[in-house]
Amino acid sequence: MTHALTRDSVAHMLDPQAPAALVATLAADARRASQRLSRLSTEERRAGLRAAAAAIRAEADAILAANAVDLERAEGLSPALRDRLRLDGARVAAMADGVDAVAGLADPVGQVIDESVRPNGLALSRVRVPIGVIGIIYESRPNVTADAAALCVMAGNAVILRGGSEAAESNAAIHRAFAAGLEAAGLPAAAAQRVPTTDRAAVGAMLQAEGAIDLIVPRGGKSLVARVQAEARVPVLAHLDGINHVYVDGSADPAMAEQVVLDAKMRRTGICGAMETLLIDRAYAHAPALVAALAARGCAIRGDAAVQAMGHAAAEEVDWDTEYLDAIAAVALVDGLDGALVHIARHGSHHTDAIVAADPAIAERFLAEVDSAIVLWNASTQFADGGEFGLGAEIGIATGRLHARGPVALEGLTTYKWIGRGTGQVRG
């Protein structure tokens, strides 16, 4: 099949500045939209999101048809990545419900963080305000289109969405419905824009858009995040890979340990909260049974010498640093909590780590000393999710130390400003 080329598309192919011009136009429109959003009330923003959710439900058939095209083109993807890409009626309904859920969250905009009165009578307060224009660069999951747009708009920000080429048709269909819903409710459609090209140069243009885009949020694999961090001249809210550990202490209840480990790895292997490495205390008497239970669920085991002695494959050094996003787990026996802490510090990605233990002193030390955005005691790592934390949808799991950490939802998409109210005070 041949396609006619328009003058604009030819110009785009020939002009290396076209992506920069495209992003500049999107950013300028987004800036105007963000200024309009900042003047809207909470209820007006809620109404816009509810209309967007209704539009997604109304366009469910079109969204599923678009997703079918993406799945047909993505035959080479692994089962886990296809699962991230795949939509069905229940997932589209959940997507719309997620937008409605964000509309019902407490609005952080205008929240007074703290206030004081100085000795000279000057009244000071810190107040949450929108960040402005946010760029989201993401891969695979088309639901991010709706989740990210909803969170940004509810927090008073305009968003520019650049999804991966593997989900291009799905993202376009979801975005069309979302933007139409906003517009029907009287909000600017430019509050949620999509980069209408899969040209990788557009990503570079977003990363260089200093002053036009206020914050970049990458959601995807290690190569995407590495590129963003290497090239960005715009502040970045990093979401690194989820090399998540579960440590089973010698004091752990065997039934609980098996339940937590199987859920952490096998509930959904392709999400960032999935366990990738299982660490077992040498003092835990039920290690062979635990590893066997994981293997019986269809998980390929790559282990250290002790685990190999149980009849499983050998782990290479790279396995301890790999986010599989698949039914594969690296497994090692360690010398108690100290051994687990050393391993996690060396190989972890500061995302989510969990301990299964009956000894509260051991557990509390783990929670205090593991330097990750989320640490859990006797619970699956798959709880690393904004919805499970009561935050609604999330923009991602931030693994850095500045601005926001862990599931980033509405509050993480705001900044603050100082407001001073005086009665003529001067410093003299």
Q: Notable features of this structure?
A:
alpha/beta; Aldehyde Dehydrogenase, Chain A, domain 1; Aldehyde Dehydrogenase, Chain A, domain 2; seven-stranded parallel sheet; globular
Describe the structure.
- It is a single chain.
- With 428 residues, the chain is of the alpha/beta class.
- The protein folds into two domains: 17-237 and 403-419, Aldehyde Dehydrogenase, Chain A, domain 1, CATH 3.40.605.10; 244-383, Aldehyde Dehydrogenase, Chain A, domain 2, CATH 3.40.309.10.
- 42% of the residues lie in helices and 19% in strands.
- It contains 15 helices and 16 strands.
- The protein has helices at residues 7-14, 18-38, 42-58, 60-73, 79-85, 89-103, 143-154, 168-184, 200-207, 222-231, 254-266, 287-296, 305-308, 336-347, 360-369; strands spanning 112-117, 123-130, 133-138, 158-162, 192-194, 215-219, 244-248, 275-281, 300-303, 313-314, 328-334, 352-356, 374-377, 396-398, 406-408, 414-421.
- The strands form four sheets. The protein has a seven-stranded parallel beta sheet with strand order 10-9-11-8-7-12-13, with helices on both faces. A four-stranded parallel beta sheet has the order 5-4-3-6, sandwiched between helices.
- Strand 7 (244-248), helix 11 and strand 8 (275-281) form a beta-alpha-beta unit.
- Helix 3 packs antiparallel against helix 6 (89-103), helix 3 (42-58) packs across helix 8 and helix 7 packs parallel to helix 8.
- The termini are far apart.
- The model is unreliable at 1-14 (pLDDT under 50).
